[in-house]
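Feature request, filed as a ticket because there's no other form

It would be nice if the structure record came with a short human-readable summary line next to the tokens. Right now we just get the raw output. Example of a typical job, pasted below so the devs can see what we mean:
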Amino acid sequence: MSDTARAGRQVGDGPLSRAAAFVYTLLAVELLLLLTTLPGLAALVLLDRDASNLPLVAACLLPVGPAISAALYALRHQRPDLTDLRPAAMFWRAYRNNLAGVLRVWVPTVLWLTIIAMNLANLTAAAVPAWWAVLLVLVGAGVALCGANALLVASLFSFRTRDVVRLALYFLVHTPSVTFGNAVLIAAAAGLTAVFSEAVLALLGAAFVLVFLRIGEPMIRGIRKEFTE
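Raw output as currently delivered:
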């Protein structure tokens, strides 16, 4: 082995190097997340928090799904070697390759959540019983959790859309730790947005995506074991 190769190997194998590679990858993914969601994010921050703006909020959220998908892929395939980091290349490759498949699960998820939110916002005007609000919240939670599973599956695997949805529903029940973890993560994201703003959540986007990826590990392993091997 040449001195150059040996030096490169030493640089890429140490714990400090792996830590630097991880931080670099996380920062690169965060910048790319902001870049790909900036138009919608800018409009979202300027919108008043009024129920009449919910359709506009949904439109602003449409670019978020493909961006999260690309971030999931880039973080999942991060390299520990500081001399061989390509988070941007992985992000853009996943963004292009997964765009159509991710939108097929992301758009219906956003649409259903928007419809549910609009119904909740107009319960008083509709004069429906209080239990209807509880039902809507439960349905909304199910849609959000199923959508989260589907987004993760579509980002890391190549399945038909209907199979992605089936897997999302299947693991919603069969991996309760993932379901619970995603519920906590979604609640934390909603709380952070409510207390501060969408901009603060966006600045922590890569960290949230990384946690989302770690929570989904049991589901990822289950899919690899049961459906790809």
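Something like this underneath would help us a lot:
The chain has one domain: 3-228.
The longest helix spans residues 87-121.
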